[in-house]
Each structure stands twice: as structure tokens, then as C-alpha cells.
Amino acid sequence: MKIMGVGNAAREHAIAEALERSEHHPKIFWLAEIRNPGIFGICKRTGGDFTLSKTTEPEKVANYAERWRVDFVIIGPEEPNFHGVPDELEKRGIPCVGASKDLAMIEMSKADMRRLQWEYGIKGKLLFKTFKSSQDAYIVLERYSDTLTWLQNVALKPARQAGGKGVKVVEDQQLYLHDEKQRFKSRHADWLEDYMKSYSDIDDKILVEEKVWGPEYTLQCFTDGKSVKGMPLVQDNKHAHEFDIGTETGGMGSISGPDFNLPFITKEEYDESLEIVKSLVQAIQDKTGKSYHGIVAGQMMLTEIEGPTIIEMYSRFGDPEALNVLSTLKTDFIDICLAILDGELSKLNIEFDKKATVVKAIAPKGYPDYRELAKNHPVFIDEKEIEREGCKLYWGSADLSEDGKILSAGSRLVEILAIADDMQEASRMVDNCIPYVKLLDGWGLFYRSDIGSYELLSKRIDVANRVRRLYHYRREKGILGKRIDWLPKVGKTDPVALLKNELSKSKGDG
Questions:
Q1: Average pLDDT, the chain
Q2: Residues in contact with 130: Cβ distance below 8 Å, sequence separation at least 6, in sequence order
Q3: Rounded to two decimals, what is the model's pTM?
Q4: Which of 264, 279, 360, 469 could lock onto 461 through a cystine, CB 3.0 to 4.6 A?
Q5: Pairing relation of β-strands 294-303 and 307-314?
């Protein structure tokens, strides 16, 4: 069997490893934009091949798949989905585990995902509004934030998936800081408009959502378009530094286990989250008339407004979340891929080890805001010592040159995974490996020591318990999902009804 993968980060290294350990003993071929040392080694060991190429050009990707005569292709990152790589492969009769361009819209356009959610009445919604320019955004935020509560405390986001960058949450609750908060909103709207100039594939540029609070978690699922099977919950920690301080990144580490739920999420909340993801998959299939066969994930938050709530959707595995689930997957990964492609996922019993996992990313200083500073530093890693500590190394943003040297490529350099009976032990195991990762020119590295620690987990549990009391109270009183605002000369009003009215009048804005 020949299998081809696409992508070059730690997530793709984990996918390649899961394919390699299959009882099908495949030859693995790979297409990437940098030479990931881990994936490159797997290709060589299995008798496959590794080629550098643009991964968002459908014809190029399909040409390599034809040249290698692969049995199927699996897509790692989101951008190939957004650019229609699965569509071109399937047009040529090459099976692909990956969301087609139309289906991947639930991730690419955060605005379209919200519209779909409201149109189909799917639970876990947020109030939102979209804008095509920062000036339009500023006018609305300035005019209505004094009267509509949800426009005071907001999350300002790029309307398109942009690698986790550009999200700012603004709480405008102190009167003496109101003017400064308004100026900040305006400045960030300008930044978002400028940042979104590099994306021409959606009309919306800026998304404003009501601000909510609570613990976040990711529910990743396999789907063949007919059934959706959930994996163990994972929590990604996006802030750069300890205890959620600093710039948001693509993810500095993640936790899972020791069973399907995280310690701060209940079985009931897992089931509700899975129903939300299933509903969104069904809605996007109804909307497009296409069948979803690949990976889908809900980036969730437990909120006081609606309980389990969708923050974003993914049309692929998360990074680093893929490492947590694939490392504990007991079922043959290729069997799962084949069941997805054959539409027989419901017949497969998918099992995971009941273990806790902790992943910590190590990144060069400069990441995420000044990536040029994080590039081209020579890397040395003692992989044997990391293995002796009982951990696994996954190569991320690292480029293996023709002469055997490895250079940092500007993002998260490596991700280290530990599997143990409890999170604290797994966290300590990873910490023991940190000294074995070095940049030979003395440039600094950083990571988050707190991921998986008792202190951070206790914080998550405390927040979840406070949120749970509030949304359970709302449920008991029959006001779950309801919001009330006060308009001058109008009185009490329902912003949800206002939003529905706007959506019925115009497809453009929510």
C-alpha cells in the first residue's frame, strides 16, 4: 500500500508516525514546503519518498499523487483544503482524507460558520457582526457600544482562518477607560483590515463576536459524511507564556485524558459538544450537497450563556492536539482512513488507550510576532535521551538541509509528548527533556512549564465549576442562550431577535 501525506509541521509528523505503525506496512510518500526531519526519516524507512513542493497548488499535489501511484492521500493542514487540493485529487480518481473546498468553508470563513449556525439553529451560538472595512467596524462599535452590551465586551477577529493570529478580546466595563478601549478597538480593526489584505478568497474582513468566558477545549472527530465519531477531548494552550500570559500562538502545548473527558468537562458536556459538531457537519453537507470525509473539529468553550459553545471549527486535526489523540489511538489508523473513504465508519470500533498525555512545544525567541528572528538557527537535539525519558519528539518548524544540518524555520521548533497515568507525571516527564533541545548559535528557546501542572489544571477546574453553576441555573430557569439589552427610548430588547432579523434581511452581516 502507498499513502501520500501533505504538510510539514509536528501534526503531520504525528500523522506520518500513525500511518507507519499500521499493520498494513505502507510505503509513505510526502509533499511539504520544508524538509521536516521526522517525516523525511519515516518516508525513507518505509521505502517511500519525500518531495519539496507548494502544498496549496492542487494540480502540483495531484501530479505527485499520480506519479507515485498512491492508494490515497491524507491532508494535514488547513490551507490545502481551502485551496481545493482534495477536489482536484478526487476529480482524478485519487481518494483523499480531507475536506473539499466548499466543506472546509466552515473553518476558512469564521463568518460563514456563524451564519450557518444561526440559519440551522445549532446550539452553542454567539452574537456576531461582520465588516468589510475597519471604518465600517468603527462606526458600529462607536455608535452602539454604549447601548448594546454585547458590543462593549467583544472579541475582534480576522473573519478568515489565519493560523490563530489576530484575535483580541476587549472588556469595556470601566467608564474611565471607555474612550481608551474604543481607541484600541479602532486601532485593532485597522490592523485586521491591513492583515486581511493578503487574503482575497472571502469578502468579510473583520468579525466581531460577543465576549464569553470559560475553559476552552477541542473535540476532534472522524467523519465519512454519514457518521461522526468523536475522539478524546484535548485542551490546547495558545498563550505564549505561563498561566495564559502573552501573545496568542498556534498552540504552546496540550493535555488530554486519562479518559475521553478532560478533568473539567463532564460526560454530558462532551455529548452536547459532539451533537454540535455533528449538526454543523450535517448543515454544511446540506448547504453544499457534498459529503464530508476527513477530520472535523470543534474548538469549544464552556460558557455561562449556552454551556458548550463553538468558538471555531477546524476542517483537519489541530496542532498540537493531533499528537495527543494519535499517540493513544489503539485502532489501526489506516483502517480508519479506509473506513472514512468507503463510507463505512459506523462499522468500525475506534479505541484509545486510557492514559493522560501532555504535549509541550519549544519555540525560538521571536515566535510568534517576529518570526524572521526565529529563523535559520542551527538545531541540535539529543533524541536518544528524550526516548530514555519515556517521551516522544515530533519535529515542527525545522528544515533539514541537503548536507544534514537542521535549521529553525520560524515557528514552533519541536513538540514533545509524554504518556502517563496522570497529567502531572506526564508534564514532569516532558520538563526533563527540555535540556536536550538546543540552538547551537546560542539563540534562546522558550516553552511553557505549567502545561499539565496541578496549578494550571486546578485553575481550569475552578473556572469550569463557576461557569457550570451559571449555565445550569440558566437552564433551570429556561433562559439558557437568552440575552437582554436596554435601548434608549425603546427599553428592554432581545439582541438575539435583532440578529435573526438582520440575518433574514441580508446575507452579508450578522
A1: 92
A2: 111, 159, 204, 206, 207, 208, 508, 509, 510
A3: 0.93
A4: 264
A5: antiparallel
